[in-house]
Inverse folding.
């Protein structure tokens, strides 16, 4: 991959109409650059990359706060309907990359050089890379291959002045495995044993990444469908509190004790979540009272009704209701049920209880 330093691609001159109007996103998030990417790697922060082929998927990636977006030649099979990636042309990649560019503001955009657009010569590689940068608005170009030819193409692109600081080149998986196999053979290591170990590692890594990928996909669903929003009062996995931040991997909840709880996004999609304030803030409070067996039940009911109906935060429609719930060991159980406009106003419960106690004769 090769990075392009031209700041005009990320921050167009406001005096010139932009060819790539940017999608709105969090104004506090800075555009991703190679130095920022290196710093995140150094700090051990997670780096998220997704593939996008059009404007809607780019908007979703922007809203999710991902770091890198790749317009890959896999578009040949996923978008254009080919049976392989080799038929895709450079013009196809330019159209797709331009659409993605218009949907991004902060992620670093990577453009894949399609098969046949850089293998012939260094000059062809430079021409293709320049078009991906100038026409499509990509900031990094990616090419695949192994051996001296691919190294020569990368050096040519760097020599043409496209990258400013560094060039990240890669070989295909097959090429890397072949080189590794040759090296191990030269050292006299049995490749059959290596194959068994590699197979076990691939299976283990695959199972290990299932949870990561699942949480990422669930994060995108949360951001798109918005079953919970920042500020909502939720109950999930025995944790209760306010939603403070929703990211692509996990959601942060602040409990009533002011502790921060990080919950994987998968729990919000596959588990049961109670959202007290999803549609509105209206909620019900239930006040339980136990009185002696020889109490005047009509007076108990009237006092409870008066306490509920007399509070200014209690809704008049539907009106409060008093229910005789049953007979206990030492008394009769009543419940006052009423709706309030804001379920977060916990003081209403206490005020009604204090009012009830003040009306009981001593």
């Amino acid at each position: 991959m090769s990075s392009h330093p031209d700041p005009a691609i990320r921050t167009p001159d406001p005096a010139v109409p932009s060819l790539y109007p940017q999608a709105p996103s969090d104004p506090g998030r800075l555009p991703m650059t190679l130095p920022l990417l290196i710093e995140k790697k150094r700090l051990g922060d997670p780096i998220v990359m997704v593939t996008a082929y059009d404007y809607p998927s780019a908007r979703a990636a922007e809203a999710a706060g991902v770091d890198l977006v790749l317009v890959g030649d896999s578009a040949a099979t996923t978008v254009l309907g080919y049976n392989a990636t080799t038929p895709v042309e450079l013009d196809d990649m330019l159209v797709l990359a331009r659409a993605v560019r218009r949907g991004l503001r902060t992620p670093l955009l990577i453009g894949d050089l399609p098969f046949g657009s850089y293998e012939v010569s260094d000059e062809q590689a430079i021409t293709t890379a320049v078009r991906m940068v100038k026409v499509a608005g990509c900031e990094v170009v990616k090419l695949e291959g192994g051996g001296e030819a691919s190294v020569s193409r990368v050096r040519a692109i760097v020599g043409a002045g496209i990258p400013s600081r560094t060039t990240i080149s890669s070989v295909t998986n097959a090429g890397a495995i072949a080189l590794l196999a040759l090296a191990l053979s030269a050292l006299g290591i049995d490749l059959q044993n290596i194959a068994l170990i590699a197979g076990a590692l691939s299976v283990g890594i695959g199972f290990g990444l299932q949870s990561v990928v699942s949480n990422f996909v669930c994060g995108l669903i949360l951001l798109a469908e918005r079953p919970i929003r920042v500020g909502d009062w939720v109950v999930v996995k025995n944790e209760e509190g306010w939603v403070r931040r929703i990211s692509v991997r996990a959601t942060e909840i602040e409990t009533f004790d002011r502790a921060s709880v990080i919950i994987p996004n998968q729990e919000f999609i596959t588990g049961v979540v109670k959202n007290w304030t999803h549609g509105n803030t209206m909620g019900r409070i239930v006040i339980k009272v136990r009185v002696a067996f020889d109490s005047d039940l009509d007076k108990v009911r009237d006092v409870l009704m008066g306490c509920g109906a007399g509070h200014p935060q209690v809704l008049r429609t539907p009106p409060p209701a008093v229910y005789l719930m049953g007979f206990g060991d030492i008394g009769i159980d009543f419940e006052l049920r009423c709706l309030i406009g804001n379920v977060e106003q916990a003081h209403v419960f206490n005020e009604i209880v204090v009012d009830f106690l003040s009306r009981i004769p001593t």
Residues 283-359 form a domain with the Alpha-Beta Plaits fold (CATH 3.30.70.100). The chain has three domains: 2-189, 233-275, 283-359.
